[in-house]
Fold each of these.
Amino acid sequence: MFEQLGLIGCGLMGGSFALAMKKTGLVKRVVGYSKSPSTTDRARRLGVIDVEAPSALMAVSGADIVLVAVPVAATEATLKAIKHLVTPQMLIMDVGSTKADVVQSAQRALRDQVGSFVPAHPIAGSEVSGVEHADADLYNGRQIILTPTELTHTDQVERATHLWQALGCRVTRLSPQAHDGAFAAVSHLPHVLAFAMMNSIIGQDHGDDFLSLAGPGFRDFTRIAASDPKMWRDILLSNRHELIVQSRRFRQALHDIEQAMEKGHAQSLEDLLTLASEARAHWRMGAQKTAKLRSSPVDP
Amino acid sequence: MFEQLGLIGCGLMGGSFALAMKKTGLVKRVVGYSKSPSTTDRARRLGVIDVEAPSALMAVSGADIVLVAVPVAATEATLKAIKHLVTPQMLIMDVGSTKADVVQSAQRALRDQVGSFVPAHPIAGSEVSGVEHADADLYNGRQIILTPTELTHTDQVERATHLWQALGCRVTRLSPQAHDGAFAAVSHLPHVLAFAMMNSIIGQDHGDDFLSLAGPGFRDFTRIAASDPKMWRDILLSNRHELIVQSRRFRQALHDIEQAMEKGHAQSLEDLLTLASEARAHWRMGAQKTAKLRSSPVDP
């Protein structure tokens, strides 16, 4: 149980965390700050936060838990701005989609207080953003990846673990590097491909006509292309090295299919599609299988 | 109103058509045939068809409407097998995802009776297949593309149009070539990319671990990768020329994003993502916009 949540960034992710904490009775009071005063005001009117703070630092004042839910590129400046009030007792987390850079930012910004910071990435979200889409159940039933380092206080990692479990999440621990490699493959590259797919179509003479004919397969395939461009600009830049590795592998897999197609090798083509189809048909979101990846699934 | 539907291919698409025709009272009796006798038997037991036919030809006997719902590569052989019983009064349609090859197959197979054949592509379907997934509402609210040629009887095109409208579809007419270009872009290439994405991941050392971490974005992006490999082998081979054109355009769009990323050009990257994001956010499935594409949206 926490007394006061200091929420920095009252968007979809931060707002949903505040609502979930309130709904489960894990926090008494939420003090919120967003860069845009109108967002903070809206968050208060929507009941997502109880009190508006005029600055990130003021949102942290008196808090025993702090969530930094800002674009990953803003993490370092945000942590620097609050460093002054961080205590060893305070649990600080982020919700960023990349972790190696966030861990480095936190070390530079928080220095001797970095042990309070537990890097976190909840595998939830939406192509829509903004506090008006905040949802107390956004994290319920989802995975959360924690990427503590040797500098992170063990008891803070435990507190973070119990907190996310109380919100209905399955908690997995990974190194920041393993996290970034995995998410380049299963999240960041799919976003890049979906963005590129849209740009490829709208760049054509008949692009608008083509779009008017697209059906449910296209709808689902491109859903993530509607994601926030600024947020994804930061994620892609931050994780570009892992992304380039994944993109090269993807191009090879694409090349294999296209070669079979162009050469009219029906059996090779069918074999390649069967591999993909069976893998996807057997996949279940959130199924437990992380033993090999230097990870530690955390027992509830 | 039709007396008897001859259904050749009792899978998801054919079965759903039979159920929709019955539900709306557009047909009195359905005689069905599938290559696999167990499928035909299952279709009858599920009430999708009323009578099992021992051959495609026998399914056509006595029918005033015929739906050929087989993989596109089997269209020609199927039409040849039934040619003997085709009459000018009979409305014959397919549901294939490619149209230029289907039109050619139909001309070769049906010859002087090709005027009865109205090539059709309903923009519906699912990553699941089989008669057990047949659904009377699969086509309701969806688009259907008809691609008649100068050989197609005008009155058959009219009958096909009214029939699909009665099933709740919006009917659009395109040339077979325009159809194949558009669907290479908005359907066939997305399938190829989703297949390649799965193969790229499972081909890696930690592929299984990566998959266990994937979330809802990945789920939707790769849904179509679970599609039937044989069916898609045929579609990709059949439309490979248009597909290669679209793939080249896509690779350029991907290259543009990756270049901005690798060079750290934050503004260019943001601009490219904004283009994609806005296009996708404004897109609505089935929104009317086909004026430029030598197409004729048909008034209900």
Amino acid sequence: MTDLNITRVDATEADFDTVLDSMLAWESVSDAQMQSTVAEIIAEVRQRGDAALMEYSAKFDRFFVNSMAELTLDAEAIEAAFNRLPEDKQQALRVSAQRVEDYHRHQVAESWHYTDETGVVLGQQVTALDRVGIYVPGGVAPLASSVIMNAMPAKVAGVSDIIMTTPAPDGKVSDFVLGAAFVAGVSEVYLLGGAQAVAALAYGTETVPNVDKIVGPGNAFVATAKQQVFGKVGIDMIAGPSEILVVCDGKTNPDWIAMDLFSQAEHSHDAQAILISHDRDYLDQVQASIEKLLPTMERQDTILQSLNDRGLFIRVKVLDDAKALINRIAPEHLELSIDDPESWLADIRHAGAIFMGRHTSEALGDYCAGPNHVLPTSGTARFFSPLGVYDFQKRSSLIGASATAASELGQVVSVLARGELLTAHARSAEQRIDD
Amino acid sequence: MTDLNITRVDATEADFDTVLDSMLAWESVSDAQMQSTVAEIIAEVRQRGDAALMEYSAKFDRFFVNSMAELTLDAEAIEAAFNRLPEDKQQALRVSAQRVEDYHRHQVAESWHYTDETGVVLGQQVTALDRVGIYVPGGVAPLASSVIMNAMPAKVAGVSDIIMTTPAPDGKVSDFVLGAAFVAGVSEVYLLGGAQAVAALAYGTETVPNVDKIVGPGNAFVATAKQQVFGKVGIDMIAGPSEILVVCDGKTNPDWIAMDLFSQAEHSHDAQAILISHDRDYLDQVQASIEKLLPTMERQDTILQSLNDRGLFIRVKVLDDAKALINRIAPEHLELSIDDPESWLADIRHAGAIFMGRHTSEALGDYCAGPNHVLPTSGTARFFSPLGVYDFQKRSSLIGASATAASELGQVVSVLARGELLTAHARSAEQRIDD
């Protein structure tokens, strides 16, 4: 096993900015070969529909079927999978789904309108999307929580048809994932993966209905396909590797912090775990906890590579200096392992989710605290938000002018539209001006 | 001049669905040459900064400068441009800005939090983006309204730094556009256009600060550049040609409707104007108005081509049948030129903006009614919303668990995380479970 070697830096050192920038740097590589492979898959699915989907399932998932019915699970099949789960998993999925639902109800936007002093009715009508698609990756880990986090905001928004696709390598699909689909209100599941699943959701086939928006994580093929169909349908944000920033005053059990850092590092070799403290001794203690605990971890190889490649311990002069670093890093997950985390909130401008206090592990948020675990990564919390109900609602502007108001405002339109040389616009408004 | 030849179809005919689908079809062409030209421009600006910008201004805009100062307008210069405008334009810009500001204030989202029965503090902190960039096209028409519509939601959201870029062909820039920037609260203007302006906003140069989000319309170079920098920064929606769907009960002055259709058709040859009525005679009357008025229009060539290529008159059996067509078309602009438009709202699921009643011309919404004129096109109102304050705010989830709550919920995390084979997640939560 390679030695542990986490980069440590002092924020007062001259080269600190350079080191931090280079550690934070992460850019998705756009590969021309990948782009053209995905474009071809999408074109095939658009042209040949179900036939192409069944061929791709055989080719990529070694799942040989004679009809789309074998790739389709209806509500009954989804419920049956839930019923096959052991009691503790059923209960945990139910608790998670309920808590996520409760939280997301606070995000529902309502329609509104008012009449202004000119006599114009103005407003916004808020409606849910009709039909959405959730992509759930296959692979080793059955991502039940991902199903709940992606489907529940759609359910709360009032989306009537929530479709899920997930690959079934060798024809196998996890009851845990299907059970999560049951508690999250998924309408039907198609056992499809990769770019072909995204293409089917975007354009529809004889069997798979086309959706209005596609969300959920996936490999490079899935991510590229989502980018290519963006505009035809909506997509969620573009996700990079997961990250955590822990700020600690030195009074939290260092084993706790070590394990919190591991919980991000275990995601992938390019995940990023950063710890900030003013206390050098405390950073040493966490380092010692990491050395002690790492050999006990199932995913120690991934954790080690992540910590060595992208892990970072930052010593600040005083803990308050961490605030500026938080806003500069704009972390996906921020743990404030300090005494009075609420007092910091007003100074925090950019973070996906803020975990307040020593007892609030980031893992709570991943599974069952209530807020969404789909969060902006790689500094994009500067402009992206957590996945939410607002991603599954859309708005229509409402404008209703009385004859008087149309006459009055028509004169303003006339000046502006003629200034822009758009005379049909001008005359459309002018003809409603009273003589 | 080519003859007027608007497609007319009856919704009761057998081939109606096919005709409608083919008339609505519109897909942006993604050109590999364009992609690579834009990628090269972006790379040049990232590598050589201001020097590249000055070279591109000379090459593309015939604007030869010795320093970036000549491409930079500060707040004083922006105000001076406003002061050079004639009184009627100043006044019209002020009215428009004020009305747009008033409407958008209704969209501001506030932070919220609550403590649930488990003792977990849950909430969402809403903050404005720090700095945004507005792209304003050059060309023949000085798009003052576009400046107001793109900048004002950012201003209302509380964005502290609103930067505008606009090309200055031959060194010329419109006082009307700069005057709009003044009333809309733009902080500074850079006289830059094309993909190079987008690159400068996304990555920053020695002079141009990098922004968090780029919004505003542009030509194919600009649109392609925005797609390429998406992820590094946020962007607004992908816009297609403008469209209008007018539903009329046959009781509105046909000249009014003809001019309303012109007001979209004058935008571009691929803009789309559709009229639906149950009344064949009325459709004939609007046709006659179009024939009468078209020769009087400044932009008659564009209008004629738009109406011939993409214009559509649809006769429905009864007017209520229009509701299903509205939701199928999901129009950018919907004019309900009928007696009681409010009674239709509950049935309308997809539309960018709804103009209610005979007096509410679409042009009112373009300039000064209050709602935004940046709206989803080409059926994307199924999942996109008008540009709004929500595009310039983002959210951070808040989670604060007491020791008791962390212990209780830790047991749920344990089951779910172990079910997903993510044992560091599990142990991170488990270590906070009370013995």
